[in-house]
Amino acid sequence: MVQEIRNFINNEYVDGVSTFDDINPVDGSLIGNVHTADAAVVDKAVKAARTALEGPWGRMSTPERVNLLRKIADRIDERFEDLLQAEIADTGKPEGLARAVDVARASANFRSFADTVASAGLDSYLTEPANGDNALMYAVRKPLGVVGVIVPWNLPLLLLTWKVAPALATGNTVVVKPSEETPASATLLGEIMAEAGLPEGVYNVVHGYGDTGAHITSHPDVDGITFTGESKTGSIIMKTVSDRVLPVSFELGGKNAALVFDDCNVEEAVAGLTRSLYTNSGQVCMCTERVYIQRGIFDEVVDGLIESAKKLKLGAPFAEGTDFGPLISAKHREKVQSFCDLAEKNGAETLLGGGVPDMGAELNGGSWFEPTLWKGLAHEDEVMRKEVFGPVAGLIPFDTEEEAIHLANDTEYGLCASIWTQNLERAHRVAPKMNVGLSWVNTWYLRDLRAPFGGSGLSGIGREGGQHSFDFYTEPVNVAIKLG
Ligand code: NAD
């Protein structure tokens, strides 16, 4: 059945000015008509968000807000299956992944940020200058106001709630734009939050392509932007908000490296690397696309990766044993294919994949792509320097620890790295030397929602998570009281 996916403003569905197609990447079928928000619809959403700040939401105490966030988390859990269906229809990802990661993290995000805010204290200082003008300083945290939340398609609900939960926990209101590829779960979340008792105007969703996002970032009454997506979009947004000097939090692309030392546990490294290369068909910002392997174990690791990748089961999301889904769209598949063609042109040996698999008549209309491995590329090649955001990786040998560190850090990006070694000293020596926001040792994508998350360089600005989110979504007002 083809659904109507409308904008959500003031806890009500709002028609757009036109519609565009929501396509299921599993088989290319039409699943929804999405209502595009033009400048006027975005303005309505921003006005609703502004008005809500003046209403019951703005007057709510922190404990009341924390309670409401916990109710939202409970309601998400109650409607888990609906969110799961929405997320899978839009993304085509395997049921097991969507269940364990995407939807599970939505309620976890609300609970975690409710805890952060519930236990937050105030910065305070007793100031005792030489002249005896003693004073008490304390910094009260105020919400930024109306926050524009713009998110991508790869982990739609997870990334959305990662931003919406702390924004609401700290008393802001939001205007959200999900990706044009994955509009459903953000819309359903609106309904769920209204059911949990969120006042009108606090959470608003507008749909559309980049233009709709630009209507948010250029709106004069938006107080801050939190964005996850491509580095080049981040750069455009930064220019747009620069005149108003708006606070921004950017979680952008990556070209993440893995360093595999000859003192690693090869079996565990291969298993971990397989996850880091192919989870969500390589469409996680933290996925590894550059694997540097110490020369003595190069062939062993390469053979292990080929064997392990061959075992991945491509299939429809609910089919038994599926652990690898399609890419998000035909357009994205063209991009991934173009990098594969370029790799071969640059002299790569394609060890596995590199093209479109035959999925049978029912699924061939989807945007499937094979798990891919290359060797023979040079570190300088474009394919090893630009983010592909697909199930591909280049395998390159190295000789020394210094060389490995240099190779990993020789990139414009700085999101994450993983280091595979059984040598404790090396682990502690190398991990902090990575120019990234997240440096893993013998693991990948191991997260704590209180820990800082984000990247440097082209991978972003700022950190979110726990106290870091609290800092971004609030503005401190330092009060100084003279004590005499
Ligand atoms: P994208 O930048 O194309 O789109 C992201 C969002 O921005 C979408 O909602 C899109 O409609 C909107 N947008 C596009 N142009 C805009 C503009 N001019 N103004 C305002 N909004 C605009 O990214 P994508 O293809 O959806 O997502 C994939 C990218 O996201 C990859 O680069 C990936 O690495 C990155 N990502 C990063 C993280 C992280 O935490 N660092 C997490 C997930 C994804």
From TrEMBL:
Active-site residues, as the UniProt record annotates them: E251
Listed InterPro entries: Ald_DH/histidinol_DH (IPR016161), Ald_DH_C (IPR016163), Ald_DH_CS_CYS (IPR016160), Ald_DH_CS_GLU (IPR029510), Ald_DH_N (IPR016162), Aldehyde_DH_dom (IPR015590), OHmuconic_semiald_DH (IPR017628)
UniProt-recorded Gene Ontology molecular function terms: aminomuconate-semialdehyde dehydrogenase activity
Family annotation (Pfam families): Aldedh
CDD domains according to UniProt: ALDH_F8_HMSADH (cd07093)
PROSITE patterns per UniProt: ALDEHYDE_DEHYDR_CYS, ALDEHYDE_DEHYDR_GLU
Domain Aldehyde dehydrogenase span(s) in chain numbering: 18-476
Enzyme Commission identifier(s): 1.2.1.32
Keyword list, A-Z: NAD, Oxidoreductase
Family listed: Belongs to the aldehyde dehydrogenase family.
Protein name per the record: 2-aminomuconic 6-semialdehyde dehydrogenase
Source species taxonomy: Bacteria, Bacillati, Actinomycetota, Actinomycetes, Mycobacteriales
GN (gene name): amnC
